[in-house]
Design goal:
The protein has 663 residues and is an all-alpha fold. The chain is built from 27 helices and two strands. Strands 1-2 form a two-stranded antiparallel sheet. A hairpin with a 4-residue loop joins strand 1 and strand 2.
Length: 663
């Protein structure tokens, strides 16, 4: 009988060899969590300052979370320098992965993610109420007193700044922020637990691509000498893409400081159907880079279905087929929005049905009737299921306390989770760097159940959902999904990672909230970014809901259900075709996001990446595709580093309004 060292022990020896780390070094250390928490706090502290006051590039706006990658870039470089000087002090792969995962989640808290929307939302309707808009009667009287800050001049000083000698009224904010932050933590718990449940299905069974984490995963690769990132940073092809992307953005950065310096326009538009619809062509190197790592069928479907839906909308405009349905601030054409929501519902439900085997294993594991292994997850399946149920119940009760009837609060939770799961799946499989839902869940509930079923208090409660469920271009579920994929780098137990993620959320809430309140009371919100303090987040709720309350409260909309049915039927047929016919070229994912104005920003990048990848595979084969991977990784990283560097320049020079990019 042949004798050999067991494979498990070989892997153990391989971990020890050349890494300069002990076996414990492959796990999640307290040092990594502490450093991740500090960086998460600083990210939120600085990002709030950047978006509110500097108003430069937005680095936490989208699913691509460029701020996390910008910080990781320098952490890895500094770590490599430390490793060269004193190897035992260098951060391990597991520590770097932990830090990056914490930063991913931290990017969901500031900006449109939560704090810079919810905080102005709590005082906006009070400050901006006038006799003309009658918000005090139509909107403010229905707000539970504990849900917003109370006290004389709390809202006035927030928007106009503190007079000399006055202090920030921290006490007035304790009760409302305790409710809203508790609500957000419950929602985050549900999102984390759901991703724990679905991780094995998406990563191991369906093998989704996770294009948004390709750069950090390549960056954290360990060379034969044990130096992390050496192969990545020594790759000349990567630096070609990096320099191209970096310089392209920097030309426009120089133009903002020196207007005589030529700028490079990266956007154009084509009007169709007599100007009733437009095709926007945005040239974005990092978005092209992300789509390079996406399946050709998916990238083709993104641009194909967007063009098809745009033509449909233009045709409706041309023949005068319009809806009288009142829509939310973000949704455009009502028919397209409801069609998109219907397709998203079927997309998610069929996806869960496909996962039924795995979900059955999870359920059996909860009751001890299955031997399925959950030791590689950040929570046991029993903990995840209990956490999911507890989180959803708390969110449901929180909406009821805000004023929604219990059954409609349940309808809202269903609609919101459909959008969260659907968009997360789109990000994980399709590498979509920037997206928003086809419709707000508030409109789904109002049109689906009728404003009369909600009443004025219910409509006002929905108005406050603009503070946490409006754009949702970045949220905890999507970051955790990408983070769990990154967790493959961590070879030891991952159970500490759950607490690292929770800690990142908590310190991020503290950092971004403090800076938001400090800047508002120091400078006055009306002098800061209007997206948050002017006609944006501060007033979205009453702008949408007050006119609805002023009018006669109607019933459910048959148009809404009809077009949701149409969208759902088309999605069902697309998923059936993909399942039954191997030759079917189009992916249903593209249709799920087609009825969306944000798709108009990314479809050109999807088209360019699809065309380039098609040519590379046809004439160069898989080998050439692999050889050019570093170039497209460089395209992504170059613009992110350039955007971050220009924010630093803006801070040093005091320059305001240098908006260069939203990656």
């Amino acid at each position: 009988m042949r004798k050999e060292i067991p494979q498990d022990y070989q892997l153990h020896l391989r971990d020890l060899d050349g890494s300069g780390a002990s076996a414990a070094g492959s796990g999640i250390s307290a040092r990594g969590i502490l450093l991740g928490a500090v960086l998460a706090f600083l990210l939120n502290f600085c990002d709030a300052y950047a978006t509110i006051l500097i108003r430069g590039a937005y680095l936490t706006l989208n699913f691509s979370t460029p701020a996390a990658l910008f910080i990781l870039f320098f952490v890895v470089l500094i770590g490599a320098l430390v490793a060269l000087l004193r190897r035992p002090l260098a951060l391990t792969q597991a520590e770097l992965a932990t830090i990056y995962i914490m930063l991913l989640v931290a990017c969901c808290i500031p900006g449109m993610g939560f704090t810079q929307f919810i905080i102005p939302c709590l005082v906006g309707s009070t400050y901006y109420a006038t006799l003309e808009n009658n918000w005090d009667v139509l909107y403010n009287q229905y707000i539970p007193p504990w849900m917003i800050p109370q006290g004389e001049n709390v809202a006035l000083y927030f928007f106009e700044g503190l007079p000399p000698g006055e202090q920030i009224p921290w006490g007035a904010w304790v009760t409302p922020l305790s409710y809203w932050y508790g609500f957000f933590l419950a929602l985050s718990l549900a999102m984390i637990c759901l991703m724990v449940i679905l991780r094995k299905q998406w990563v191991d069974r369906e093998k989704l691509a996770y294009p948004l984490v390709q750069v950090p995963m390549e960056m954290l690769q360990q060379s034969e000498g044990g130096l992390i990132g050496a192969a990545f940073f020594k790759n000349k092809v990567m630096w070609v893409g990096f320099v191209f992307s970096f310089m392209l953005l920097s030309f426009n950065g120089l133009h903002l400081y020196f207007p005589s310096f030529p700028a490079i326009s990266r956007a154009s538009s084509l009007s169709l159907f007599y100007g009733s619809v437009n095709l926007d062509f945005w040239f974005s190197p990092p978005w092209i880079g992300f789509f390079y790592f996406v399946n050709l069928g998916i990238s083709a479907s993104v641009w194909f279905f967007y063009l098809l839906t745009t033509y449909q909308q233009g045709l409706f405009n041309f023949i005068g087929l319009q809806s009288a349905e009142r829509m939310d601030i973000y949704s455009g054409n009502a028919f397209m929005a409801f069609q998109g929501m219907g397709s998203m519902i079927v997309f998610v439900l069929v996806g869960l049905w496909i996962s039924r085997g795995h979900l059955q294993d999870v359920w059996n594991k909860v009751w001890g009737h299955s031997e399925v292994d959950d030791s590689g997850e950040i929570l046991s399946y029993r903990q995840a299921v209990v956490g999911l149920a507890a989180g959803l119940v708390l969110v449901w009760l929180g909406l009821w306390l805000a004023g929604l009837p219990l059954h409609l609060a349940a309808m809202f939770v269903f609609g919101a989770m459909v959008l969260f799961i659907g968009l997360t799946r789109v990000v994980a499989e399709g590498g979509i760097p920037a997206m928003r839902p086809p419709i707000m869940t508030s409109t789904f509930v109002i049109s689906g159940a009728g404003a009369s079923a909600l009443g004025a208090s219910g409509l006002v409660a929905l108005g406050f959902t603009y503070g946490w469920h409006a754009e949702i271009r970045s949220f905890v579920m999507s970051s955790v999904a990408n983070g769990l994929k990154m967790g493959e780098v961590i070879k030891a137990s991952k159970r500490r990672l759950f607490w690292a993620v929770v800690l990142a959320i908590v310190v991020s809430l503290i950092g971004s909230s403090y800076m938001t309140l400090y800047l508002a009371y120091k400078y006055g919100g009306i002098n800061l970014n209007p997206l948050f303090f002017g006609g944006g987040a501060a007033t979205y709720g009453p702008k949408d809901m007050a006119p609805r309350i002023a009018n006669e409260l109607g019933g459910a909309s048959w148009e809404a259900w009809l077009f949701m049915g149409i969208g759902g039927l088309i999605m069902a047929l697309l998923m059936w075709a993909r399942h039954c016919f191997l030759w079917w070229p189009l992916h249903p994912l593209g249709y799920a996001i087609s009825a969306n104005w944000k798709t108009g920003h990314i479809f050109c990048s999807a088209l360019v990446a699809w065309f380039l990848k098609l040519l590379i595979l046809k004439y160069g084969g898989a080998k050439q595709y692999q050889n050019l991977r570093p170039f497209f990784l460089g395209l992504i990283l170059g613009e992110i580093v350039a955007a971050g560097m220009w924010l630093v320049v803006d801070y040093i020079t005091g320059h305001i309004g240098s908006f260069l990019t939203q990656i």
